[in-house]
Amino acid sequence: MKLRYLFTTAGTSVWTHRTRSLLTILGIVIGVASIMLIVSIGKGAEKLILDQIGGMGADTIVVRPGKEPTGPSDFADTLFADSLKDADVAALKKKSNVPDLVEIVPAVIVSGTASYRGETYRPTTFGWSVELLSRMFKVYPVEGILFGEDEIRANANVAVIGAKVKEELFGIESAVGKNVRIKDKNFRIVGVFESHGQAAFLNVDETIVIPYTTAQKYLLGITYYHEIMMRAESPDVVAQTVRDIEATLRTSHKIPDSGENDFFIETQQGLVDQISTIIGVLTAFLSSVVAISLVVGGIGVMNIMLVSVTERTREIGLRKALGATNRDILSQFLVESVLLTLSGGLIGILGGVLLSLAASLVLSITVGTSWGFTLPLSAALLAIGVSVAVGLVFGIYPARQASQKSPIEALRYE
User: Fold this and answer.
1) Mind telling me which residue stretches traverse the membrane in this protein (predicted)?
2) Which of 10, 87, 279, 350 is the right S-S partner for 336, CB 3.0 to 4.6 Å?
């Protein structure tokens, strides 16, 4: 039996009972559309996060204290770990230990609110090198200047604030030269960053940067660092530099050969690999859950095909009496089943694209940054393949039932 004839016959049957056919493939439509939406959101999230990580620079290396986090609760533990100290910074600065480092800056994180004349705001406050932040994220002061190494060495009470902090605390008036209060200490504002938004995992607009020495001594009363940020000479030497850093810190901390590190090292590529793996696993898990609707849709197709076989028993008998073979009947009903699920898959792809576009618009507004529409062609091709497979798997039993009917008994059927 010619393939064209098979599809024409199957299409006629599906169109004749189009309302029933549409209801039958509803599960397929929902399943495919949902999977397309999940893949699109997953890819969009991955692209957004990787773009943010890209802001760090491929030559950036970060060392944090404690064991590498394996869950959300572990991240808080790194704030209380005290394994990174001045001696470590001094050891890392020695060219004989880590020859390919060009910059080393420790950092501490300060929680709490900032206030000015009754106005309060909860920023992200860092004890850091504001010059490094400016170079790393290519963000520059729109007002005032950046503090430098002299202020860091002098434990100066100076600060550079982000555009959002300035807007919330000072409104339209100039902030430079005024004092902002952080943890009951006054800090003189020397500069205001231009509006920049998100950079890596940091929103520059919501940030206050003060000298890390000042944050340690006057705000936190600690002698350790929450992280040490470094830059290698080039991305090509990052891998070797990471090995040198690890060896230097293990020696500095007197960790035996069999002992575990009391610090962990992050690089841009390492973060990229972790994020891609996490999002890939999450997308696969959610897709497998949603795939249940495809199974339900397949069962619906099998059910309606069995009903169709029963309704068309006399037609089957007549076709066999006129010379149709069991294989012809099997092919006819199998193609009809595949056509049903394929139609559901195509409608689902269209629905998934529309839902993904809507989701990207909503998420762009919600997140406050551009959430690009991302839907790989491979996802659509996979959806088509899965739809055809569902039609074959759940259509084979009704098709076999139809092909094995006796023409004599079928013609007698009322």
Assistant:
1) 21-42, 278-309, 330-363, 375-397
2) 10
